[in-house]
Amino acid sequence: MSKPRFATQGSIQTPSTASTVQIYSTIRKALLDYVSSDDQRLSQFVNDRIYVRSQPEPVLFPYITLMLNRTSLSAYNGYRETVLLEVQAIGKPESQLPLIETAMDIVDQCLTSYSDARSGLMVGRSRNRQTIPMFTDPADSSVVGVIATYDFYLWPRVLTVRAD
Amino acid sequence: MTAPLTGYTSALPTDVLLDSGVLYVGATVFGAFAGGIKFDPAVTYKGIDFDGKRSPVAGLDRVTMRMPKISGTVIQLSTTMIAQIEPGSATTATGAWTGATSYAPKSAGQLLASGDYLSNVRAIWQRGGATSSAGSYVQVRFPSALLTKYDITGQDGAEVAIAIEIEARLDPTLSGFSNIGAAPFRIEYLTTV
Hints:
heterodimer, A: 164 residues, alpha+beta, 6-stranded mixed beta sheet, 4 helices, 6 strands, B: 193 residues, 8-stranded antiparallel beta sheet, two-stranded antiparallel ribbon, 2 helices
């Protein structure tokens, strides 16, 4: 049985922070639409293979997964969130490492300069990135990956709509 | 259930100001800053006193002094910036001791020339979004200014910190500033930087 995939095409409006699913969609679309400073797009590296949480089975390499870890504190009555967005770029075989490193350079450019006030407010400025070591047997040692965690802050509609 | 009382309004995503701000001199970026840029209008109000006054009275206040100031910590020092942090300094090509070029600060006692002042110093912050009445940026602009204070502090394992303070100066020769009481700065909304 295949793992759950991303929302179906056309079912989600973006940009929007009106729900968690739409926040994922907004970020995914921003990544796919972004044109880097040297005129490259993420689709040149992963096509549209950007998934939430995990990849479908079977999967084509390379691909990217997104996972949000959201925190809201009492300081803003819970309306403001700080968000850790974990992005994993996974390739196979090992020769795809330069490919996913370059893809993540585009992700870096996009998400560290991201701000959008069209639905709520979503701002990204910083990140932590590392190239993970290859797995060892019995895991597949030909799988390569880059993991980056991006810091965002949000005033998402899903929460702030209570104040309107 | 009652929603919590909050200062949030739906205008916040658009009106919020982002990031540390950027300092321009005219159309040119002054440099990269560590930390944010600060603007202090440093305005002094004085109320008219009279016998029997028990509290400040509305309608009797007036501004007696403004000392608007922009401050921050820049982390680079170009040759262009030398003339900005040392207004009126002279440049000479000299021998091996000082290297290829020497910058001599202006002698004490001499009045600064009009060209020694900075024109259109602008501290610019990005807004969350743009509206028809307010663009994507807000700036505090000093049409005429003087960098009055700086120090250079080296730091272990980090960029050198150059703390600067820029004060506005009223230039009566500029349009809109001929009144001696005019504020020597403006706050402006921009669609482009």
